[in-house]
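Subject: complex prediction, re-run

Hi both,

The earlier run crashed halfway through, so I resubmitted it with identical inputs.
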Amino acid sequence: MKRLALILAVLLAACLLSACSGGRPAESAAPPVTLSALQYELENVAVDFNNLWFFQQIEEQTGVHVDFTDVKDSEWTSSVSLAFARGSLPDLILRGSLDVEEYGVSRHLLLPLDEYMEKGYLPNYTARLSEPGLREQLTASDGHMYTLGFLISQGVNTNGHFFINQDWLDALSLPVPGTLEELTEVLRRFRRDDPNGNGLADEIPLEFTFDDNITGIYNLFSFFSLPLNEDYVFVDDAGRVRFAPEQPGFAEALAWLHDMAQEGILDIDFISQGSNIWAEKVNEGNVGLFSYWRLQNTALSPSVISMYRVMKPVGAGGRKACLPRLIDLIEFGAALTADNRNVEASLRWLDAQFETENMLVSQNGALGDTLTRREDGRYMVASVPPDNALYRQVPVICGQFFAPPEYYASVYVPAAHRQEKAAYCSLYEEAGVLEKVSAKVLTTVAPRTSDEDARLSRLKTSLKSLTDAAIVDMVTSGPSPEKLEALRQAFAAAGSAEYCGIYQDIYDRWTASRP
Amino acid sequence: MRRSIFIRYALSYMLVLLLLFAGLTLYLVQSSQRQVQQDIITGQINRLTRIAIQHEGSISAMLSTAEAIGLSPHIEPFRFAEEPWKAYDLQLQLVPYTAANSFCDQMYLFFPEDDRLYSSSASMPLSRFSGMTRFESTPPEEMAQALRSAERLVVFPAQRIVSSLVDGSDPRMVTFILPLGANPVSSKGTVLFLAKEQTYRSMFADAIDTDLNTYIWSGDRVLAASEDLPVPARDILLPEGGDYSRIFSWNGESFLAVALPRRSWDMRYATVLRMADVNAAVQGSLRHLLLMLLLLLILSVLLILWVARRHARPIEALSGLLSSEEEERKDELSRISSGIRRLTRTNVELTSRLDMAVPMQRRDFVFRFVRGWFDTDEEAVSAAENVGLDIRKKYFAAILCSLSADREGPFDLKQAPFSTLSGMAAAGVELVAMKATLYLAFSDDPAALSALAEMIRQKGSLDGGGCVTAVSAVHSRREEAAAAFLEAASAYDNRFVMGDRQVLAYSDLSSNLEDILPRARKITNAISQALALNSREMLDDRISELMRFLKNTRMSPFAFRMIYNQVIDTLTRDQVTRLTSNHDARDFYDIFSLSSCQSLDDLDEMLRRLCDRLMEAHPDASAPASVSEGDEIDQAIRYIDDHFTDPEISMTAIAESIDLSTARLSLSFRERMGMTPSDYLSLLRCEKARSLLEGTALSIREISALVGYYDAGSFIRRFKQITGETPLQYRRAHSAEAGS
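This time it finished cleanly. Structure:
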């Protein structure tokens, strides 16, 4: 009994000592501060955060130790909810996603970080917020910033780019088409003149999938100045939200597509083939035109890649093409909970990860190993180890990263395939074939209420169904005034006006809140 | 070597216990081995049954899906080239069917019209599917043929599939092809399901703690398997028929195969375990069993030691009682045995000594019986039995027989007496003072008692010296024993007149005493009354009166004996009995000393001594039962003494004088005085009247008034009732005595 009492006394003393050390201000050099963190982890990549070389380096630099609790992607949302429900909050929440409006604005369970930024606690991070459009995305509805963002700006401004078979153009001595009319003629020649020279009429001038903006037929609507995306809305030059399938270009596009299908130019399999079959067909080298993210490091084989060149989208009837625009979306990087008693130490630990070299190492591996520094001072990736071996040293995508476009370009030389994509994006930007205001502002950036979100979700389901059915029908059997009128009525009945109206409200609020 | 009884008990019990435990352990080990092995087989059968039910459920779900698609009015075969838009509708239709089949990774609908496959996300010609999907073991032609012509479930066992349509790097998958709809003949097409072998392995993964192989056979091919053990499927010998398990050897090692009989779709479910694992499980179970038995054994041994201790303790105590110091080195049972032998010897000696003492005891019994010292019949019978006499007879009599010159009676008193006389018990005692032998004889036949007396007389006369024999009257009550002796003694006293030629029977003599006895009885009653009144003066007068009567009567010795017998008998019966609550009769007289009384002076002395002792033992002289009531009775007596001349005195007046109820007064008075207050009052008045009758010339009427009677008639009746004479007779008699 005495021995038990002695053990309990020792344990109690140890607990008291550890409690004292946990609450000690960060300014004290020793012992180091220990923080707890809920850390997001990819579903299929196991990372030992508590023993990761990168975080050991950060601990050495800051004197802050973090105990990580790893949570897989599939369990992330429920684990975060559970932590907030139980009230047993960690000091930090890292990566994944977080409902800032719910936990920060409404329940005050997150610490507002803007005042700390003003006091200079996050110097590395705060310096990069000066680029346009970033603070707006990070500011919650109550005007505070509760989170640190995660941003890898790739300079990507659209999903799909058009690639035309240069070998065939060469074989038929055709220039790269600059208008829809020229393109139509080129496609007909592809179909008719056996550009592959095998004596068979097996060429597929147009190879697409259906309802997306990478390989899908949606991109072809851009030829008719219609940025058709998966949410079917865009903002016109007057700042009005429009429902794309109700615009005149939609019917024109259907008529042209029907002609292409009828002429055997458009592979009618677009209706039901997935991206796997699409890639299989493209890799057969028998396709004239397709759209894709880029050529290198994709599902396409290198031998096929060499046959194609990028093509700017063409406009019909003298109009300019208009593709949906992408913008850099800031993801959730980190947040401090209201239970955090070591705010300064926490911010010190986080901001150390935003230091340029630390940040690039966290993403690409150790300097001198997989990351190198060029003479101009910019960093570049030397090699990418197979089998996700990077995650054994650095957190990669699960770490902290905040690189807006200008800053990122000044410190980092992207890999060749990323440079390729960036070049295509620059080309399209320069050509002015991208919508002015990205629909992502409506669908992702601008805050919306939960009621608006639920209503939009229901309306979108009906409208998408009508849109896709109309595309299938009219591409295969051709549009007619009756069909188009019936479709207009169907859209109206399905709530297209309300759909646009809700998005208009969201957009108006967002624009009003901008400085 | 000495071994204590405790150790003997403990060893014996432990031997029995060990035998029981050995048998029990042997039985349990054998049955446990069988049971554990059977449990493993049963567990695997249950596990396989679960897997089979789950697998068959998945196949049934596929069949249901195929049937539902075949029956759906929204899904009809079409040619893609002619109606491509239907592919879009079909994709939407297939979404819920695909979602419902979680067991399968891929589901494709095949329409044979244009050799095209459709899933919920893609469609393609069969040729493209075959080009994109390479089955490791099944040629594309065989797969195409199955798709085009399957009329029932066709299953291709798990095989590696290389396809960009399937997630993961070249997974192994099981392929199912089913006709659409319920009627294969009119089927719209077929459905192809691809299920990853990993899904099967998840299904098999319930056996997490054992290395085993699990198989699903489709016909003679292994459909899917998890193979932790190296034994190849083709070398596994599965049990057939109704047997569920069999043991086989492979590569020098034993394995246990457990399988279910063939089930639906010709499928079998089997598992293979190392016998070494089975044996390890058996040994583990046995270890637990043996440990439990060992614990039980330890507890049983402790219990046995306790029981042995408990059983040995009384024996040790007995041994301690029976053993002697010389036997300390022997064990308890030997000591008990020798102790019992020693006791037996002692008992024999004691018995022989007791046998020698029987005549003495018999003599003592006769004395005690005649003296009336037995309080109950049972006590007397028990004492008689102890000396070999059965006195449970209706009658008894006392017989006195004179001793011969050599002081021997007709019978040897040391021998069992009269054993030859059937139905009779008798014993004798020598009365040295009387020079006679007293026999007590018991019989159910009164005549036999007289016959015995005659036999004694004759036997005693055989030596020619003559033998005086006297017999009492026949009695039946134990309390009359003393009287019987006195009767015999009285009759014996008549030997001077009657001689020894015949038995002197009391009954023959007593009739001559009728003239004397009433008078003697009256005097005796008067003595009794004097004793009751506790009046010394009155007692002296009555004894003197008796002596005068005996002296003046000039009676024969026999009559004299009869008189004083009568006196003694009355006094002892009336007075002594009244006092028996505090005194035993033996405290007051000895019948044999009384019987030796030879003269009037002896009688006078003896009588006065007896009366003195009775006076001393009178309730007045003894401590009362209740002090308060004793005081009250004394007060009542004083009240009566003071007021007996008052004719108005009554029970109520007496009771009120001492503050008691009349009933309580009567009860307490009787307990104290042996008579009621009324009797005491009458007695007091009578004594006063006697005094006046003797000492005065007052008339009867005057005397009656002086002693408290209203009328002389009542006085005369009461006086005669008490004294046996009328007042006038009394005055005359006493006048005559005074005159003589």
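Residues 5-71 of chain B form the longest helix (67 residues).

- K.
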